[in-house]
Design brief:
Helix content: over 70%
Number of strands: 0
Strand content: under 5%
Distance between the termini: 44 Å
Largest sheet: none
Number of helices: 6
Structural class: mainly alpha
Order of helices and strands: HHHHHH
Radius of gyration: 20 Å
Length: 151
């Protein structure tokens, strides 16, 4: 390989090692913010009209196994607690995995979901998978606690 190409490659590798961790942290924060927005809005809407929420869980959503009232409480609680934890970066992998399950159950249990709605759920599911696999990044309470924990 000619020397100039080797030099360019080394410079590229050097800059890549410098900016990649920060880019990944920015991506993690963006995903956390977007997921929190989606699920907190949904949970807040359910809390605002609890009677309607109970009716939807009884008549519209076909949540398997669980009684409709329990499903409403668990779903709404998950939509409020898990994204709040994800937003601050606490128990992030657990929260992302929980939101993945919540999202999957929501997509599966609503029989009249549109193609656009299904695409949204698939997108949110992938965001959850990314965060469950990679964590919340260095701009999170998880990272701070891991640094403080004894080895």
């Amino acid at each position: 390989m000619p020397r100039t190409i080797q030099t360019l490659w080394r410079q590229h590798a050097h800059w890549q090692t410098l900016w990649t961790p920060w880019a990944m942290d920015a991506l993690a924060v963006a995903l956390r913010l977007m997921l929190a927005d989606v699920f907190l809005r949904s949970g807040w809407l359910k809390i605002q009209s609890w009677d309607s929420t109970l009716m939807l869980f009884e008549h519209e959503y076909a949540v398997p196994v669980l009684p409709h009232e329990l499903a409403a409480w668990l779903g709404t609680g998950g939509e409020l607690v898990l994204p709040a934890l994800l937003l601050i970066g606490l128990f992030s992998r657990f929260s992302a995995a929980g939101l993945f399950v919540l999202n999957a159950v929501a997509a599966i249990s609503y029989p009249d979901i549109s193609d656009a709605g299904l695409k949204d759920h698939v997108l949110w599911g992938w965001w959850c998978v990314v965060l469950a696999c990679t964590g919340a990044g260095r701009l999170s309470i998880d990272h701070w606690l891991n640094r403080k924990a004894p080895s």
